[in-house]
């Protein structure tokens, strides 16, 4: 038995952990993509402008008649995490896996650099490109480079490893955080540089494809090219090829166990979705608390009128007679009878129009993936709110409308959202009454909707009915902080 210095224990351990976490990332990513199975390069997200879609549905060109939830596809729990149209839980699993994957990656790269083993995968000579081309020709002819070309990898594998570790993995991280409203508010030029929300989303997808192709080829070559050496190196960190049978058995059983674990996570989640939400959200909140909550909006926005979208998706349809006769009556009299209750005051639309108006351009993003850039106008929420009572930590905003559907199939409940006091007092948290210079459209929340630009769209309550300070959101609904948290198990903190 001889120890192979190229495969120490820490490297083999981080390699296995990475394999487990990459599977969780891909499977939860499939769940997120299935909730909006279309990809665009522009923030317009108009039907027919997709550069790639995973659905045969043809969409109507008219706004407000087709909601994004209607476009959602259901994937099997065998394929996605957790599957069956549960994008909220899919995002929680994705966030948890990302945090662990980044931590594991930092450990790996730190040890790689500190031990000098980085030379195994980082080219130090331009000759590597010529050698890689020779290896590529051999592989293309279904041949195998001779063993002496592997130190421990041949030139082509070295370049592929370098690309994944130092290009595609960072690209996944950079584009992933760019889809966060908090990042977009703080670093708007960075997000715009990537092509906005949809550019970041498409680049994220392409990076995922590149990593997936690498994994497929990598695993194939492990078993097809000098496997008697590869498997012993990977499992035992040894050079004794006599242990090949043991290594083959160990790695085969490990792969099978990991696949079973991936699928079991899906069924564990679906068996009790509320339990999974209770377990996952506090963990993912750690990342939001330390990296997103402290971020404040940039003093100058990077988006201009030229960025305004021509099409705006919606989630949820306007209140019906069964949901709110009061709202329908106000709509029929051109909002003369509309009232929004703010604390003890009952305000009309004219009252809202008489207040100082904020105007800015911002991108609305939905947890499903679509986006739209608009100019929003209306009074800041802090100018509407009464003095903050002692012990009040949150603001509750209620809608005249109902939830689209409840995850447990109970009757639809009145739509509401809760935001933290700090969010309510931000400059770009307003009660929007105009969009792109015109009165707010009915399907987008007329006559007034909440806009909280540091949060995803599920916090932006449409058809606002009342606004009030509260002490604790645990006393309302299911105690999760909003209807989308109750009905679709989203996170209370909508910054990512």
UniProtKB/TrEMBL annotation:
It comes from the Bacteria. Keywords: Cell membrane, Membrane, Transmembrane, Transmembrane helix. Its main location: membrane. InterPro entries: Cyt_b561_bac/Ni-Hgenase, Di-haem_cyt_TM, OxRdtase_Mopterin-bd_dom, OxRdtase_Mopterin-bd_sf. It is a multi-pass membrane protein. Coiled coil: none annotated. GO terms for molecular function: electron transfer activity. The chain crosses the membrane at residues 12-30, 98-118, 159-183, 203-225, 245-270. Residues 333-470 form the Oxidoreductase molybdopterin-binding domain. It is found in: Cell membrane. The keyword Transmembrane applies. One of its GO terms (cellular component) is plasma membrane. The keyword Metal-binding does not apply. It comes from Corynebacterium gerontici. Residues 7-236 form the Cytochrome b561 bacterial/Ni-hydrogenase domain. Pfam families: Ni_hydr_CYTB, Oxidored_molyb. PANTHER family: BLL0505 PROTEIN, PROTEIN-METHIONINE-SULFOXIDE REDUCTASE. GO terms for biological process: respiratory electron transport chain. This is TMAO/DMSO reductase.
């Amino acid at each position: 038995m001889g120890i192979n210095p190229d495969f120490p224990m820490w490297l083999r351990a981080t390699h296995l952990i990475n394999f487990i976490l990459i599977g969780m990332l891909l499977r939860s990513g499939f769940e997120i993509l299935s909730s909006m199975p279309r990809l665009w390069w522009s923030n317009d997200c108009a039907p027919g402008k997709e550069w790639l879609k995973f659905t045969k549905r043809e969409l109507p060109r008219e706004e407000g008649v087709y909601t994004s939830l209607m476009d959602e596809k259901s994937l099997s729990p065998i394929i996605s995490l957790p599957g069956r149209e549960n994008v909220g839980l899919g995002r929680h699993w994705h966030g948890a896996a990302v945090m662990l994957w980044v931590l594991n990656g930092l450990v790996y790269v730190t040890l790689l650099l500190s031990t000098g083993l980085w030379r195994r995968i980082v080219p130090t000579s331009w000759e590597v490109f010529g050698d890689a081309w020779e290896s590529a020709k051999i592989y293309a002819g279904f041949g195998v480079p001779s063993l002496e070309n592997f130190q421990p990898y041949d030139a082509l594998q070295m370049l592929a490893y370098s690309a994944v570790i130092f290009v595609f993995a960072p690209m996944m991280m950079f584009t992933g955080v760019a889809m966060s409203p908090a990042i977009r508010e703080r670093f708007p030029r960075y997000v715009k540089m990537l092509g906005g929300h949809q550019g970041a989303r498409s680049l994220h997808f392409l990076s995922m494809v590149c990593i997936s192709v690498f994994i497929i080829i990598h695993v194939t070559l492990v078993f097809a090219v000098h496997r008697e050496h590869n498997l012993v190196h990977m499992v035992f960190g040894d050079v004794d090829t006599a242990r090949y049978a043991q290594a083959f058995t160990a790695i085969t059983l490990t792969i099978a166990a990991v696949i079973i674990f991936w699928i079991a996570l899906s069924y564990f989640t679906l068996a009790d979705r509320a339990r999974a939400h209770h377990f996952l959200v506090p963990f993912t909140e750690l990342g939001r608390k330390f990296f997103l909550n402290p971020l404040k909006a940039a003093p100058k926005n990077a988006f201009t009128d030229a960025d305004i979208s021509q099409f705006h998706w919606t989630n949820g349809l306007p209140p019906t007679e069964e949901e709110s006769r009061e709202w329908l009556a106000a709509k029929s009299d051109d909002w003369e009878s509309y009232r929004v209750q703010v604390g003890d005051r009952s305000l009309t639309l004219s009252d809202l129009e008489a207040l100082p108006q904020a105007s800015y351009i911002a991108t609305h993003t939905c947890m499903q993936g679509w986006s739209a850039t608009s100019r929003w106008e209306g009074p800041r929420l802090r100018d509407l709110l009464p003095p903050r009572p002692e012990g009040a930590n949150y603001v509750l905003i209620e809608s005249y409308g109902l939830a689209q559907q409840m995850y447990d199939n109970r009757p639809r409940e009145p739509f509401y959202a809760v935001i933290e006091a700090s969010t309510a007092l931000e400059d770009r948290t307003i009660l929007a009454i105009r969009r792109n210079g015109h009165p707010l459209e009915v399907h987008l929340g007329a006559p007034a909707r909440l806009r909280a630009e540091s949060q995803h769209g599920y916090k932006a309550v449409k058809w606002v009915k009342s606004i009030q300070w509260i002490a604790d959101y645990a006393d309302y609904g299911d105690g999760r902080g909003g209807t989308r948290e109750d009905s679709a198990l989203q996170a209370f903190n909508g910054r990512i």
